[in-house]
Write a structure and sequence with these properties.
UDP-N-acetylmuramoyl-L-alanine:D-glutamate ligase, 2 domains, Protein-Tyrosine Phosphatase, Chain A, alpha/beta, ligase
Length: 435
């Protein structure tokens, strides 16, 4: 019965979505990839929203139900028939009347957890600008290989019209290879000079040495576009890999004929969504890097790299608090061991692991020479957070990350300086996650 209700719901939402898009004909920007989708949507929105009537994907609404809801303009009805009825009444109203305030631009996040997901979405959502962020080994229990993931994501690019634009990551070989699969215009972004929009001269907070690490803020870089150079400063961003969402936003802004100066100004409003490399003040004058939204091998390595780039006061120590990485299939054990090796490479002082799979992170680290006495393991994130309350000291920097199912944000709440602000600062704080 539950599956039947969901199927009927999907069909009705699909019908209304097609009709609404046909009537209002907004420009549709679709973002897919293994990592960085939501941050990219946020960055694009920061650039466009001030100059255009723009709507972005709600929360993590990135599938066959969430995307139609974003297009209709209401959140999920959950288990309430009345709330779903309100959704359909809103959809009918959009078709019967003309809403002059309907967005001119829609920015949609498109996920692919299983083969066929992207194909299903693009069959009823015509896309004008297709963005692929990066390909990484996630959901391998369904896709088996990164190449299969790339094949699924590439469908977004393959089915763009000749009037459309493909925005591709030049630094990612599997993404850049998608240029051969489209008749659309191609624009590239990346850190390599050959990219159409290339970032260079990257600096974190302009100066990495701070006596008070809670003052850390911002990342700056220069963007080059066909001989033109523009300084970009992202005051609420920490993490070199978050330059990629900003670069995509710059590309999309240029497609909509915004000047580099205007784009740079608008990007100052960009901040990562909750749980994506968010800087949060911790207890005892410590600093937390909250990267708890989700996890994958590539994302963990990028987060550890950023942890390594920050110079602490002499007394400061670096903690990596890492939960299981899920849905990796046969790659699970090796992936966790490789993260353990990265722990040594990136200069972590203390390793805290959460969950059964994460024991292999410890094994990988110890095999590379990491001191076993500096490794600590817990069954759940709350236990890890309570342990950290007594362990950390002033000047310490703590990275917290894990797959969604590990609920690592609970560890953040245990050690954040102002837990009363959890609802505003942390991911997964609404009632549906507290049940």
């Amino acid at each position: 019965m539950k599956n039947l209700f969901k199927k009927i719901l999907e069909l009705k939402l699909r019908f209304f979505t097609k009709a609404i898009l046909a009537k209002y004909q907004p420009k549709v920007i679709a973002v897919t990839g293994s990592v960085g989708k939501t941050s990219t949507v946020e960055a694009i929105y920061s650039v466009l929203a001030y100059n255009f009537n723009t709507r972005k994907s709600f929360k993590n609404y990135n599938n066959e139900i969430g995307i139609p809801l974003t297009i209709i303009g209401l959140e999920s009805g959950g288990k309430s028939i009345i709330r779903w009825l309100a959704v359909f009444i809103r959809a009918l109203s959009l078709l019967i009347h003309f809403d002059k305030n309907y967005p001119k631009i829609l920015i949609l996040e498109m996920a692919a957890d299983h083969p066929g997901d992207i194909q299903y979405l693009i069959n009823f959502v015509p896309v004008d600008i297709g963005v692929v962020t990066a390909i990484a080994p996630v959901h391998l229990e369904f896709f088996k290989t990164a190449e299969n993931i790339a094949e699924e994501k590439s469908k977004l690019i393959k089915f763009l019209s000749v009037q459309g634009t493909a925005v591709l990551n030049y630094d990612d070989e599997l993404v850049w290879a998608m240029k051969e699969k489209t008749k659309a215009k191609i624009l590239s972004f990346g850190l390599q000079n050959k990219a159409d929009f290339a970032a260079s001269e990257i600096n974190i907070s302009h100066n990495l040495n701070f006596q008070d690490i809670t003052r850390l803020e911002g990342i700056s870089f220069k963007v080059n576009d066909q001989g033109k150079t523009q300084d970009i400063f992202l005051p609420k961003v920490l993490g070199q890999h978050l330059i990629y969402p900003a670069l995509v936003a710059i590309v999309v802004g240029a497609i909509f004929n915004l000047s580099l100066e205007t784009i740079a100004k608008n990007l100052k409003k960009f901040q990562p969504p909750a749980g994506r490399m968010r800087l949060i003040k911790g207890i005892k004058n410590t600093l937390l890097i909250d990267d708890t939204y989700n996890s994958s091998p590539l994302a963990v390595k990028k987060a550890l790299y950023q942890l390594n780039q920050i110079n602490l006061p002499k007394s400061g120590k670096k903690y990596a608090v890492l939960g299981d990485m899920l849905e990796l299939g046969s790659y699970t054990e090796l992936a966790h061991q490789e993260i353990g090796e990265a722990i040594v490479e990136y200069g972590v002082n203390f390793l805290i692991t959460v969950g059964e799979m994460s024991r292999d992170i410890t094994r990988g680290a110890v095999a590379k020479g990491f001191a076993k006495a500096d490794c600590f393991h817990f069954k759940n994130s709350v236990e890890a957070g309570k342990f950290l309350q007594d362990r950390i000291n002033e000047g310490d920097l703590i990275l917290i990350k894990g797959s969604q199912g590990m609920r690592m944000e609970r560890a953040v709440k245990e050690i954040m300086a102002e837990p009363d602000l959890a609802a505003d600062l942390l991911v997964r704080q609404d009632e549906s996650w507290k049940r």
